[in-house]
Specification:
binds uridine-5'-diphosphate-glucuronic acid; UDPglc_DH_bac; Rossmann fold; single chain; 6-stranded parallel sheet; N-(1-d-carboxylethyl)-l-norvaline Dehydrogenase, domain 2; 42% helix; alpha/beta; 3 domains; 436 residues; UDP-glucose 6-dehydrogenase
């Protein structure tokens, strides 16, 4: 099939690349000339395992093209995917200005039988609005479908190629058939293709993210209580997870969820709820707990150092909002860094991928190290914010030698408290008893 994908952010680039990989003829379109020029040279604007190789291979074989020329890119496409950003607006709702601009830009150039598909996370009712806009702009009934994306950063290629399910929201069964055909190479393991109304599909995306965020806020609240009660949240997690009604996924406590999706989507769903005169009690609590959880490491540092951090040197492992990405949007690590700087502490940080992004934001306000062990030299404490694999099994004896004080605050529960005590560490983690 001939496909155009508008927007070469995370979702757009992965979608376009994976569809080209299954043999389609894909043109990725973006108004950012620098980005497109880079992509044409094989430069990938984000760090995502496996993406670069797949872009290069498909581009070389002529199935994947990049352009800033929207009319030319759209003209022959049977399916036009819209994957532009829908950032959080001032009132928490999604800002759709990029989406409206794209709809206006493509309208005059669409094939008569083109299907316009939204891949971006858009508020419920957006597909219907796009349908109305296209009707006005083209003078005909255009097919508009919703096809929300459930991929995770860091595992994007795998999630796209082996989805748990594909959801589409359509008005006509013929549109659903065409999209099912497009997805058939990815559904060979009998995973479901679920067709529903555009409103239900749009809602599905938000409900999925809000429920995952709810699980995280719930376990974080329980972890904080567990710690006060003298329990170990990891044991509790195991104790509940074996109940098949509960399971283990997304119940790891930590420093709060970050990233470009959960915070924004919970707030957008919240705004939708309010706009319909309903009370978003649960959504508000999920967001509030998460904001509070981002301070959990600061509170632990404050308690450990008796409220005086000035002149202390604090090492940080992990700046990205999660492992296997260089994304620092809404990253809990940056909230901690701001707090430490405000308190007059010096910060020295390591991250396998995110340093360039943090440097672009914070410049020389903190020190950066390419080597995780080098951050520890003379540091008063180590704080772990992201569960990169490289942090799971460090040389504890070397760490002990390097740190000025053997103090480790672990926001991801990577180590065993009893073993840390035996190694001579003062060790604080999330939802477990501290060892001093
Ligand atoms: C999330 C969803 O998982 C995807 O299904 C969805 O497609 C995507 O948003 C989106 O809407 O585009 P992502 O933001 O890439 O994906 O990352 P996740 O792996 O879901 O992690 C989000 C945050 O939750 C991270 O900060 C992570 O550290 C935190 N988390 C996750 C926990 O604190 N505990 C857990 O048990 C799981």
């Amino acid at each position: 099939m001939k496909i155009a994908v508008i927007g070469t952010g995370y979702v757009g680039l992965v979608t376009g690349t994976c569809f080209s990989n299954s043999g389609n003829d894909v043109t990725c379109i973006d108004i950012d000339e620098k980005k497109i020029a880079g992509l044409k040279q094989g430069e990938i604007p984000i760090y995502e395992p496996g993406l670069k190789e797949m872009v290069l291979r498909n581009a070389e074989e002529g199935r994947l093209k990049f352009t800033t020329d929207t009319p030319a890119g759209v003209r022959e496409a049977e399916i036009v995917y819209l994957a532009v950003g829908t950032p959080q607006g001032d009132d928490g709702s999604a800002d759709l200005s990029a989406m409206w601009a794209v709809v206006k830009a493509i309208a005059p150039h669409l094939r008569e039988d083109a299907i316009v598909v939204t891949k971006s996370t858009v508020p419920v009712g957006t597909n219907a609005t796009i349908y109305g806009m296209l009707q006005e702009l083209t003078g005909r009934d255009c097919d508009v479908a919703s096809n929300p994306e459930f991929l995770k950063e860091g595992a994007a290629i795998d999630d796209f190629m082996k989805p748990d399910r594909v959801v589409v929201g359509v008005r006509r069964p013929e549109v659903s058939d065409k999209l099912e055909q497009l997805y058939s190479p990815f559904l060979r393991t009998e995973k479901p293709f679920l067709s529903m109304s555009p409103e239900s599909a749009e809602m599905t995306k938000y409900v999925a993210n809000a429920l995952l965020a709810t699980k995280i806020s719930f376990i974080n609240e329980m972890a904080n209580l567990c710690e006060k009660m003298g329990g170990d949240i990891n044991d509790v997690r195991r104790g509940i997870g074996h109940d098949s009604r509960i399971g283990f996924a997304f119940l790891f406590p930590g420093v709060g969820y970050g990233g470009s999706c959960f915070p924004k989507d919970v707030r957008a769903l919240n705004a939708m709820t309010v706009s319909k005169g309903l009370e978003p009690t649960m959504l508000r609590a999920v967001d509030e707990i998460n904001e509070r959880q981002k301070s959990v490491m600061a509170n632990k540092l404050d308690a450990h150092f008796g409220g005086d951090l000035s002149g202390k040197r604090i090492a940080i492992w992990g700046l990205a909002f999660k492992p296997e990405t260089d994304d620092i949007r809404e990253a809990p690590a940056l909230v901690l860094v701001d707090w430490l700087l405000e308190k007059g502490a010096a910060v020295v940080a390591h991250d396998p991928e995110a340093i360039p992004n943090v440097r672009a934001e914070l410049g020389d306000k903190i020190e950066y190290s390419e080597r995780r062990m080098a951050t520890l030299d003379g540091a008063d404490a180590l704080c772990i914010l992201t569960d990169w694999k490289a942090y799971h099994q460090p040389d504890f004896a070397e760490m002990y030698q390097l740190l000025k004080e053997p103090v480790v605050l672990d926001g991801r529960n990577l180590y065993d408290p009893a073993r840390m005590a035996a190694r001579g560490y003062c060790y604080h983690s999330i939802g477990r008893v501290s060892v001093d």
